[in-house]
Amino acid sequence: MADVLSPPPVLRLRVRDTVREADGVLGLLLEDPWGARLPAWEPGAHLEVRLPSGRIRHYSLSGDPGDVRTYRLGVLRDPAGRGGSEEIHTSVLAGCLLEVRGPVNRFPLVPAERYAFIAGGIGITPLLPMVRAAAAGRSAWSLLYGGRTLTSMAYRDELAALGGGNVALAPEDTHGRLDIDSVLRGLPDTAAVYCCGPAGLIAAVESRCAALFPARTPHVERFTAAPDAAPAAALGSGSGSGSASGPDEGGFDVELRRSGAVLHVPPGRSLLDVVREALPSVPSSCEQGICGTCETKVLAGEPDHRDSVLSAAEKAAGNTMMICVGRSKGSRLVLDL
Ligand code: FES
């Protein structure tokens, strides 16, 4: 897995074409401007895309890893979002050049005899290549796929071609809420459950898995922070004026070893916010601990991780942290910045 200790390549790619994948979903087909092969990727991988405005956004690769000259992304237009999807839908056209970092895979497909995939809306993007891999292999699989309406649900034709009998499409306007138990009940212990979609869907899948199979943790990918994660806004990230603080939001010092700065992170301000006093261009994107853009190497100290990016083992190792939401368990952290 590429991470801050082994950074992924930075690529300059051309938008070969844009495709309307569904209501509100735009597909981008990216290629090397000189037709070179693109770095290999596996199902679950995503790209970090720097938009013309400088915004950084992360999008799952939804195409076929066997197509070595094309990356395909699917972007849902979110008028109430932070502007990235609006920019893509309105200003990114065929011929545009985009700076891209990746592919990075934090949502890998583990080997299993059987897969249960559950997708909500644009959450289908990382799951489609997984479905393709499962359909090409010997594993049994099923997909429960919900969306607001049938016409808002992307890639329906591809899914039908991959094995329509294994796919249950359940648009909310005609089917109501997804019947998660219909998928989970009867699964053998060897099955792997994968879910991507809105926070409510992921929480429901996690809850039902915990109730039905206490020993099995579903594999999930989030577009928003987990309900129990520390919200960056509440820590003042990016605003410089946050005031809310929880009972465990003690202050600590951070040393930026390469810059030579030592800063104090007071209660109520995020580490990222304080680091920007010395390094205004330190990269970030989601500022919710879900994208990995702000992953930073830790040289000393014990991070207090609050992100949904690192695995439990990676958090325990403490080699890196997401500085948009993470803090320090001790009085001092030393970062490789
Ligand atoms: Fe996304 Fe920190 S900016 S994890």
Question: Keywords, please?
Answer:
single chain, 337 residues, alpha/beta, Elongation Factor Tu (Ef-tu), domain 3, Rossmann fold, Ubiquitin-like (UB roll), 3 domains, six-stranded antiparallel beta sheet, five-stranded parallel beta sheet, 18 strands, 31% strand, globular, binds FE2/S2 (inorganic) cluster
**What is the overall shape?**
globular
CATH class type of the largest domain: Alpha Beta
Distance between the termini: 22 Å
| CATH topology description of the largest domain | Rossmann fold
CATH architecture of the largest domain: 3-Layer(aba) Sandwich
What can you see in these coordinates?
A six-stranded antiparallel β-sheet has the order 4-3-6-1-2-5, with helices on one face. It has a five-stranded parallel β-sheet with strand order 9-8-7-10-11, sandwiched between helices. A five-stranded mixed β-sheet has the order 13-12-18-14-16. The chain has eight helices and 18 strands. The radius of gyration is 20 Å and the shape is globular. Helix content is 20%, strand content 31%. It has 337 residues and is of the alpha/beta class. It has three domains: 10-104, Beta Barrel (Elongation Factor Tu (Ef-tu), domain 3), CATH 2.40.30.10; 114-222, Rossmann fold; 232-335, Roll (Ubiquitin-like (UB roll)). Bound molecules: FE2/S2 (inorganic) cluster. Residues 284-287, 289-294, 307, 309, 322, 324 line the site of FE2/S2 (inorganic) cluster (FES).
